[in-house]
Amino acid sequence: MMGPAHSLSGAAAWLGVGAAAAAAGHPMPWPVLLVGALICAGAALAPDLDHKAATISRAFGPISRWICEIVDRLSYAVYKATRKPGDARRSGGHRTLTHTWLWAVLVGAGSSVAAITGGRWAVLGILFVHMVLAIEGLLWRAARGSSSDVLVWLLAATSAWILGGILAKPGKGAHWLFTAPGQGYLWLGLPIVLGALVHDIGDALTVSGCPILWPIPVGRKRWYPLGPPKVMRFRAGSWVELKVLMPAFMLLGGVGCAAALNFI
Q1: Where are the membrane-spanning stretches (predicted)?
Q2: What's the structural domain count of the chain?
Q3: How many CB atoms lie within 10 A of CB 155?
Q4: What are 199-219's pLDDT values in tens digits?
Q5: Which domain holds residue 233?
Q6: Can you state the angle between helices 30-43 and 189-204, rounded to 10 degrees?
Q7: Which of 10, 15, 35, 161 is disulfide-compatible with 41, CB 3.0–4.6 A?
């Protein structure tokens, strides 16, 4: 799928988690619901770090383009080193390492550890990065063009600062779900994991599939392109994505938000 659809699906997924948490007796404070949705929307773009032409490659200027190039080479190296006889030969690392459940879990866990050990500035850094990505994904028309980069960064930095300050207030969400001393912001890794997995599932619906299960082998393949029957798949950017899935994500997100806030 394309960046906007990935971001919408990520936000909708976290709002759905908010609805489920409320039904299970662990309602999210509204800042957790909002921040989690934005982080998940941003994290749903992050697996495309292995693609030099993806939205994330442009999000932070030369720095993100350089990181994408490194991740692409790393992913390709891992693919070559671990492929089985049934895996196809390829010339790049797109849709390999960063499109797996293991990558999603490691990145989410690393973010949680950084949040609880790095203090306020680590939390603000996590928020800033994902706010930039969320803006790039959800407001893609307004964020296009290099002239808007500085404005996107300023908006993301301001939002991260304000929302980080709100979360730090008692009862506003720093200790949601994890209440023991020293576990503040431990939940920040959850929307990151969810966003990455939602991205992978979205890509699995396209014609190429997605090797979500790696490193678990399937038959003669270690990089098995998981997905539904080919007749049910679509091309990225097609009318199915734009006219069906994106409106559905917006509707589901709205319903999930209303349920999470006990409006329905």
Answers
A1: 32-49, 99-116, 122-143, 150-168, 242-263
A2: 1
A3: 17
A4: 999 999 998 899 999 999 998
A5: 3-260
A6: 40
A7: 10
